[in-house]
Amino acid sequence: MTNRILFSLFVAGLACSVPLAGQRRPGGGAQENPPAAADGVRDPGPRPGPALGGQPLPGLTVGERAVFEQAKIAFEEADDVDEGLGPRFNLDSCVGCHSFPASGGSAPAVNPQIAVATKMGAQNRVPPFLRPDGPVRVVRFRQAADGSPDGGVHSLFVITGRSDAPPGCNIQQPDFSQQGNLVFRIPTPAFGLGLIEAIPDSTLRASFAASAARRQALGIAGRFNTNGNDGTITRFGWKAQNKSLAIFSGEAYNVEIGVTNDLFPQEREEDPACAVTASTEDHADHDGRAFSDVEMFTQFMRLLDGPRAAASTAASQRGRQAFEAVGCAACHTPVLRTGRSTVAALDRKEARLYSDLAIHRMGALLGDGVTQGDARGQDWRTSPLWGLGQRLFFLHDGRTRDLVEAIRMHDSPGSEAHAVVDNFNALPAASQQDLVEFLRTL
Question: What is the spatial distance between Cα 442 and Cα 425, in angstroms, rounded to a whole number?
Fold first, then answer.
């Protein structure tokens, strides 16, 4: 049983985690080539050329490289019902959500959820918030039917009608008609997550303290999301709600693909007529000394290198200076270092992630009303910007392809990014363009 995870977590890179101020919202949305804003500033779009992500960490041992290659195969395989898919699910593979610009990336240009809705005779309707050219999306409900807070993932599809589903399985899709109750997340890239996992809490706290004066001058607060039991920093997911890659993998396998596993052994749909395999569907084969799928997904992400930046240009060098000057780097910390690790390729290495991994209040326009750990409705983890140059969709729900629009949408009532976006808007148009060009080299 090899399947993968749909990582609906992590961030799809916004331009400045501290971004927004003026409520200028240039038109845009999901077009291939976003138009220039009224002041002439334009997102040049995803950087062409070969993928600069998706490679294993440099310096892996022969054994580690072999594990990575096998784990990549598991990550790229699709599950059928007899392998644990469903009964409720969002997609049938990890790579379906994490394929662009390479395996482990983020949502592709063509949404695979459209095809999986009716794969093998399934009778699912495609909800109106999914488009063939739009991002892969996961839906959460703000409130439950009784009016109490919800916030949980509600799977889009069911196995009813599939040729590999039990004949008596007739569960129905959720009701997605109450549009005002729906909030969305898109997949976050898995590139470099092993490096992020290996950054010590002490390093994060020291870096955060070192930027305190700069943040205070810009009106930026922020804090870390933490584990409720031991107080350690959680760092994975849109709201930094998950502690480790293992937890991230196990939860996603269960919530997104519907596969029970050693970390999440309960079915999310317990209708006995839909049961094909016994819980736990994914588990280690101790007699055969084989990894479980969750262990394989974890190793793939842990050993996956961060994306490489493109060669700098005169414009991007000016843009990097503007990025620092307006205050983006107050939250989008360019470089952090990992601590000691038993994996030499992760041991005391630089992670050029452009994030402090803290959560910040991003204002009413970007709020979703969902609380996860210490992160409340308007709180979001600073999006790591590495790999931004080849990303297609921005913001937590993929509402825009336009990087300039994404920057400016960070400014709404209550946003900590107000002063930073004001600074961005105050730049001459040429300097704003340089900053955008810099971001597209990452």
Answer: 21
Residue 260's alpha-carbon distances to 253, 271, 277, in angstroms, are 7, 14, 10
- For residue 185, which phi and psi values (nearest 5 degrees)? -135, 150
Give the Cα separation of 293 and 201 in Å (integer).
28
CA dist 227 and 250 (Å) reads 17
Residue with the larger pLDDT of the pair 286 and 391: 391
The residue with greater pLDDT, 5 or 392, is: 392
From CA 428, how far away is CA 285, in angstroms rounded? 61
Beta strands in 341-421 (DSSP E): 350-351, 359-361, 379-381
Looking at residue 34, its pLDDT comes to 63
Give counts: helices (H), strands (E), the chain. 11, 8
pTM attached to this predicted model: 0.90
pLDDT tens digit string along 409-432? Answer: 999 999 999 999 999 999 999 999
pLDDT of 273 strictly over 50: yes
Determine how β-strand 182-185 pairs with β-strand 359-361. unpaired
If you average pLDDT over residues 89-109, what whole number do you get?
A: 96
Q: Which residue has the tokens 């000394």?
A: 289
User: Token pair 């999986």 is at which residue?
Assistant: 116
The full length of the chain comes to: 442
C-alpha 158: how far from its chain's center? 24
Backbone dihedral angles phi then psi of residue 178, each to the nearest 5 degrees: -85, 80
Number of other residues whose CB lies within 10 A of the CB of residue 51:
18
For residues 171-199, give the mean pLDDT. Answer: 96
Asked if the bond preceding 280 is cis, omega within 30° of 0, the reply is: yes
- Cβ neighbors of 227 (< 8 A, separation 6 or more) are 233, 234, 243, 373
Q: Provide the Cα torsion 94, 225, 337, 16; round to 10°.
A: 80
* Contacts of residue 174, Cβ cutoff 8 Å, sequence gap at least 6: 154, 155, 156
Residue 2 has pLDDT above 50, yes or no: no
Q: How far apart are CA 119 and CA 286, in angstroms?
A: 34
Q: How far apart are the first and last CA of the chain?
A: 36
